[in-house]
């Protein structure tokens, strides 16, 4: 069986950049043995619905939003299992951890949120790229990104960041300060996964 490495953090924390760097590095080292998945996956029907509520085009209550986010991962369960069974290492750019921390910030119950992904493949390593909401916001503005529903409130993002850091203590998640340079962060990720 392969392994699952999860990269998590606020938006603009560097997850996509680091996931791509890690995929390229490991794929060079172990050709054909690495897969990369990103969530939400907007290419599916459920993903399209998630994009719609994030863009403010449709309104749902918090429970529905988080059920849709979970369902989006369930859509990819068989793909993930296939990769694992063939011995591949999987890099996940976000996973169920996002649903927990954002759901808690939305006032939802931890146990209820936890049940949504019960039965999905478990990760081997979780790495949180920790960035302040202020830096997340400034990176968005600098790159002309349109802020989605979860990114607009700095107070909300402060809660999300707090949840990441608190759950990291009890769930054995690795936390990296992601306001450092991309190279420094990447070397730290390699060290965590034992590839240095």
UniProtKB/TrEMBL annotation:
<feature type="domain" description="Thymidylate kinase-like">
    <location>
        <begin position="7"/>
        <end position="189"/>
    </location>
</feature>
<dbReference type="InterPro" id="IPR018094">
    <property type="entry name" value="Thymidylate_kinase"/>
</dbReference>
<keyword id="KW-0545">Nucleotide biosynthesis</keyword>
<dbReference type="GO" id="GO:0004798">
    <property type="term" value="F:dTMP kinase activity"/>
</dbReference>
<dbReference type="InterPro" id="IPR027417">
    <property type="entry name" value="P-loop_NTPase"/>
</dbReference>
<dbReference type="GO" id="GO:0006227">
    <property type="term" value="P:dUDP biosynthetic process"/>
</dbReference>
<keyword id="KW-0547">Nucleotide-binding</keyword>
<dbReference type="GO" id="GO:0005524">
    <property type="term" value="F:ATP binding"/>
</dbReference>
<comment type="similarity">
    <text>Belongs to the thymidylate kinase family.</text>
</comment>
<dbReference type="Pfam" id="PF02223">
    <property type="entry name" value="Thymidylate_kin"/>
</dbReference>
<keyword id="KW-0808">Transferase</keyword>
<keyword id="KW-0418">Kinase</keyword>
<protein>
    <recommendedName>
        <fullName>Probable thymidylate kinase</fullName>
        <ecNumber>2.7.4.9</ecNumber>
    </recommendedName>
</protein>
<dbReference type="InterPro" id="IPR039430">
    <property type="entry name" value="Thymidylate_kin-like_dom"/>
</dbReference>
<dbReference type="GO" id="GO:0006233">
    <property type="term" value="P:dTDP biosynthetic process"/>
</dbReference>
<dbReference type="GO" id="GO:0005737">
    <property type="term" value="C:cytoplasm"/>
</dbReference>
<dbReference type="GO" id="GO:0006235">
    <property type="term" value="P:dTTP biosynthetic process"/>
</dbReference>
<keyword id="KW-0067">ATP-binding</keyword>
């Amino acid at each position: 069986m392969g392994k699952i490495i999860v990269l998590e953090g606020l938006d603009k924390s560097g997850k996509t950049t680091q996931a791509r760097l890690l995929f390229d590095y490991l794929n060079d080292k172990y050709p054909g043995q690495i897969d990369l998945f990103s969530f939400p996956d907007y290419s599916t029907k459920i993903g399209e619905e998630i994009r719609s509520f994030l863009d403010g085009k449709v309104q749902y209550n918090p429970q529905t939003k988080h059920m849709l986010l979970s369902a989006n991962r369930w859509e990819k369960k068989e793909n993930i299992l296939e990769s694992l069974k063939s011995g591949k290492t999987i890099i996940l750019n976000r996973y169920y951890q996002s649903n927990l921390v954002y759901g808690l910030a939305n006032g939802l119950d931890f146990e209820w949120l936890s049940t949504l992904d019960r039965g999905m493949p478990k990760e081997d390593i979780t790495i949180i790229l920790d960035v302040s909401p202020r830096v997340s916001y400034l990176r968005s503005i600098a790159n002309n990104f349109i802020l989605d529903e979860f990114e607009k409130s700095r107070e909300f993002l402060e809660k999300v960041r707090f949840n990441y850091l608190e759950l990291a203590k009890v769930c054995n998640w690795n936390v990296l300060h992601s306001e450092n340079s991309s190279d420094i962060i990447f070397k730290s990720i390699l060290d965590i996964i034992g590839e240095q």
